[in-house]
Write a structure and sequence with these properties.
Largest sheet: 6 strands, mixed
Strand order of the largest sheet: 21-1-2-3-4-37
Organism: Ziziphus jujuba (Chinese jujube)
Number of domains: 2
Structural class: mainly beta
Pathway: Glycan biosynthesis; sucrose metabolism
Distance between the termini: 32 Å
Keywords: Glycoprotein, Glycosidase, Hydrolase, Membrane, Transmembrane, Transmembrane helix, Vacuole, Zymogen
CATH topology of the largest domain: Tachylectin-2, Chain A
Family: Belongs to the glycosyl hydrolase 32 family.
Main location: other
CATH class of the largest domain: Mainly Beta
CATH architecture of the largest domain: 5 Propeller
Radius of gyration: 23 Å
Bound molecules: 2,5-dideoxy-2,5-imino-D-mannitol
Helix content: under 10%
Shape: globular
Strand content: over 45%
Amino acid sequence: NSMLSWQRTAYHFQPENNWMNDPNGPLFYKGWYHFFYQFNPNGAVWGDIVWGHAVSTDLIHWIHLPLAMIADQWYDINGVWSGSATIVSDDKVVMLYTGLTNESVQVQNLAYPADPSDPLLIKWVKYSGNPVLFPPSGIDSQDFRDPTTAWLTSEKKWRIIIGSKVNETGISFVYDTEDFKTYKPLKGVLHGVPGTGMWECVDFFPVSLIENVGLDTSENGLGLKHVVKASLDEDRHDYYAFGTYDERSGKWVPDHPEIDVGIGLRYDYGIFYASKTFYDQAKKRRVLWGWISESDSESADMKKGWASLQSIPRTLLFDNKTGTHLLQWPVEETESLRLSSKEFDKVLVKPGSVVPLDVGTATQLDIIAEFELDEKALEEVYESNEEFSCSSSGGAAQRGALGPFGILVLADDSRSEQTPVYFYVSKGSDGYLKTFFCTDQSRSSVATDVNKQIYGSFVPVIQDEKLSVRILVDHSIVESFAQGGRTCITSRVYPTKAIYGAARVFLFNNATETNVTASLKIWQMNSAFIHPYQNENHIDSSIKLSN
Ligand code: DQQ
């Protein structure tokens, strides 16, 4: 449907057509990044799930490969569900995934490349002894799924976790294995949090407290912390927490129980779910992939013939300035898509005003911006607004003393459509400033069948830091990263007027008591090369093209 074709993105990963959901089994192998994903070969809604597969040399340009696994065995005939890759040695990769059996029981299965010398890993073989794990006794057959990447114990055994729940407590079971075929359950669980419900797509990995590099999943010892992430089936968000992992007991204890997994920090305060990290041994970084679903109607998805995107892969680091947050940042290769840029230096935005930024067409952009408020206003304003929350506020139109101010993206000239990405600074009764980072979708589209929530959260700002944001705009997705990626918001928006050449960017300041000075650099973004596989020669020429 050409009416809706502008919604397709230009540099985010998506299949040629149909439905996609969770990222699966990401890894780097023999020079190639591999990306697998939950895919419906038969339509643009969830169902008939199999594994799609694509490869890349830079995480930006992709070649679609044949389906990696289809639903063809009794133990996965009702769905080849999510799973993870483990690199056992330079020439050995294994994949563990959840299968939905002929009786819809969730079991874990093993698969491996038919030819480990093929860097494209095109053909996958399912282990003849599958399934390798059944739901433990006392666990509902529908509540046992999404095995993680395995990591090594000091006894050189491989260890995995699998998400589940008991009553309303979200939990993760722990298993040790030497051959990925037989498993020994550990006593108890790695961790559990009452009231959080089923934990989908659990993730577990170390982060360095000392260096700005990622760590192999098996790293343990001093100078690191472990992150546990769970995707909460009930509220559809990905939550993480830092803590200490005790290898002997196979348990993890959160640093701050009051912000434990599922009740504290989120990777993203918009749409971002079922995410998964992998360690990129080529660039010594940990990379996060997340599924970005649609927020229009199912009938619109069926009309356009596809649904869902993947986030731009994000590099993850521990933020040692706050000690409380991860930093998420688009992988550096994203910058290879930058074309011409425009700079705006110290633009004054007075209270209650809007300033257009002339960047030409504004549907594919990479924006970096810094904001400063009046010193005097910051000192003199008194506004006890401790209860502020983006989602229950009146959005970008509700004026406070020190906010909201920020950027309007995917706006048309008359601003009948606009998506504000903004800060709101409040001053507590203790005199301290607290900063919030929000995205307001309420005027993002004149269409009525789309989600118009206001998203956001608190963002930590260290003394003397400027407020800063990076925004990736790509037709129907806006990915925003505040303060170097401490707080992130991804939204899907469906403007009908602010499309193609009609899309614009503005600065706005709805604070009543302060000027805002904004400095920005805005790049036009090239489209990525994301094409189907034809044959080996085609691979060679594709790579040349993408370079
Ligand atoms: N999606 C998969 C499951 C997983 C869920 C099925 C999360 O394995 O728990 O498509 O989105």
